[in-house]
Amino acid sequence: KSFLNHTANLSCYFPNYQKTDIKDLRVFWQKGAVEVVHEVYYGQEKHDNLSPKYINRTKMDMDKWTLQLLNARIVDEGQYTCIIQHRDKGSPKVIHTSECLLNIIANYSQPEIAWLHTGELKPNEYLNLSCSSSGGYPEPKQMTWLISHENKTRRLMRHMDVSQDAVTKLYNVTSKLNITVPTNTPTNISCLLHLGEQLGSLVSVPLGI
């Protein structure tokens, strides 16, 4: 995983037990079946075969056998393959391959609750709220509303509208809540954005009624 616009580290997992000289190896990384991302040709960096979008964006750490992909973008997501060939009696022979799956993460803004109506609130009328968060990646799982009063919390699931920016590929999400105004009891309303198992959740500032 790598954060958007940060450096992604893709490991080749090559142990090099025999301490083979880099001048006897051809190391190249490719994305998918056709795009060449980086190439070290018998000790020299070679740029002839690189896909244009990776030029000047990669560095190879030959001590750790790790490729650094600079300024990682959402379009860089995908499967990368590291291939190492050894110069064996003149004809190169593949001695190692490994694959690495890159996922990009962009942080969502803190969810924010907004009123969808104006005027005074009266008991048993309907309360219309929306909760929004923007600028994140990947697409979140769901948005949950939390209604808390008298030490009890109810969770309400509502439809989440999702839109994706055509250029940046980042997501914006909104959910709407329509409930009756609570009577005689101070109530806190929050919304929770679930980003997935490994990424956790974001919660809004509570709205007190």
TrEMBL record:
Membrane topology: Single-pass type I membrane protein
Alphabetized UniProt keyword annotations: Cell membrane, Disulfide bond, Glycoprotein, Immunoglobulin domain, Membrane, Receptor, Signal, Transmembrane, Transmembrane helix
UniProt superkingdom: Eukaryota
Ig-like domain boundaries: 1-98, 111-191
Keyword Nuclease: no
InterPro entries: CD80_C2-set, Ig-like_dom, Ig-like_dom_sf, Ig-like_fold, T-cell_Activation_Regulation
GO CC annotations, alphabetized: external side of plasma membrane
Stored PANTHER family: T-LYMPHOCYTE ACTIVATION ANTIGEN (PTHR25466), T-LYMPHOCYTE ACTIVATION ANTIGEN CD86 (PTHR25466:SF2)
Protein name: CD86 protein
Organism: Steatornis caripensis
